[in-house]
Amino acid sequence: MHILSAITQALNLQNSILAKYLIRNVLMITAAVFIVLGLVIFGNQLVLVINESLEKGIPIADLLPLVGFKMIRDVPLILSLSLFLAIILAISKSYKDSEAVVMNSLGIGDKHLMVFIQPVVIVIFIFILFLTTIAVPWSKQQRSMIIDRSENSSKFSFIKEGEFQEFKDGDIVFYASKVKNIDGESTQDMEEIFIYTLADNQPIITLAAQAQKYTDINTKSVYLRLKDGTRYHGFPSEMNKKILNFDQYDLQIINGEKRQSTNIETKTESKPTLDIIFSSDTREIAEWQWRLSQPISVLILSIFAILLGKTSPRGGKNLGVLAGVIVFIIYNNALLIAKSSLEKGDTLPIIGLWWVHLVVLLIIFIFYAYRHGKLSQLIKKPF
Fold first, then answer.
1. Domain layout of the chain by residue ranges
2. Strand partners of residue 243
3. End-to-end CA distance of the chain
4. In Å, how far are 26, 73, 276, 287, 352 from 133, measured between CA atoms?
5. Which pLDDT score, from 0 to 100, does residue 91 have?
6. Most buried in the list 147, 275, 378, 379, measured by CB within 10 Å?
7. What order do you get walking across the sheet with 165-167 strand by strand?
């Protein structure tokens, strides 16, 4: 009854000067922290995307969209951390400026502050929910489409005539004296081919008059079909070399099964939420629980932030912020561990990621009881 009366009183004071003052401080600090974190993280993402585009031969025209899609992916995490730290800083500031002392003398405590900040928290909760369930999956889908289009349509389209180039992380050294694009850049014919590979630490040199790239429909593996050539197992000058003449020989460039296995997680992450929310696949269950967990954590952390921000004027200046960063990292890492465990089938779907939220709520309850001197009463209270 005491909690209900406090909440009722807080709701009556929701439009008061104190509530508006607190909300304004939280919004301003949230924006400032978001800008700082955003500049650091988005700047780093820009460098990573540029490096990735250079490695995979992604056109420059697709560079900005890729950066934008990665930014959308990171906004929920940055925004939730910004709000969490903003609440801690706003509450801590009110205590250091003795504003909270005046509030406490008026009967305004932690429960009232929790209600005061809810308009901001709820708006950000809805926005992050929209991002994680709709915008982020869509952005990952669009990013995957750009990368797949670049890899499928222009793989080897950036081969230059008369230059040695490496593929498969340097396992293949390729040279073509002439390259001709057919049907745009989807198919290429090459002449006077030289290929150097290693098998069992033994060099294999392949020479061919012609070559053409093609993709196996069933396995999705990419091959070079070599024609009228010779394969040398060992260098031509060695006595134990083996020579094989062939009319046609298919050399695998990309392993389709490996490529599909690496894309399973990406495809799951890019699926619409409505398509996976009723799925029985553990990977998809883990994905939609993760999408809901991010906005749920905003609600839970907003309560925790009130308690972490409550300091004395003589307390450590940034102690609450440091504790908040540690709590945020542990919370999110625990969610990731729970997600991975669910994907592997080690956890029941009904437990899934929810146990992490329950544990954090329990910690908040214990911390609140400790702050208000009620923990000893709860321990001594008989069941």
1. 2-151+271-380, 165-255
2. 232
3. 20
4. 25, 11, 11, 10, 18
5. 85
6. 147
7. 165-167, 172-182, 187-199, 202-215, 222-233, 242-254
Average pLDDT for the chain: 78
Strands 202-215 and 172-182: unpaired
Q: Quote the Cα angle for 209-214-218, to 5°.
A: 140
| CA-to-CA separations, 137 to 69, 80, 140, in angstroms, rounded | 10, 18, 5
CA angle at residue 182 from 178 to 184, to 5 degrees? 115
More confident residue, 259 or 298: 298
* Dist CA 246 CA 237 (whole Å): 20
Cα–Cα dist 118/111, whole Å: 11
Map tokens 């401080």 to a residue: 25
pLDDT at 99 over 70: no
Residues 81, 266, 137, 185, CA torsion sign: positive
Whole-number Å distance between alpha carbons of 383 and 380: 9
**Token couple for 68:** 């934008």
Written as six digits, the tokens of 74 are 């990171």
Q: Which tokens in the block code for residue 229?
A: 């050539």
Q: Which two tokens stand for residue 203?
A: 């060099």
Where is pLDDT greater, at 375 or 91? 91
Per-residue pLDDT tens over the stretch 275-316: 888 888 899 999 999 999 999 999 999 999 988 887 655 555
130-172 pLDDT tens trace? 999 999 999 888 887 777 666 554 444 556 677 787 776 667 7
Cβ partners under 8 Å of residue 165, min gap 6:
159, 173, 174, 175
Average pLDDT score over residue span 176-180 = 80
Separation CA 344–CA 359 (nearest Å): 22
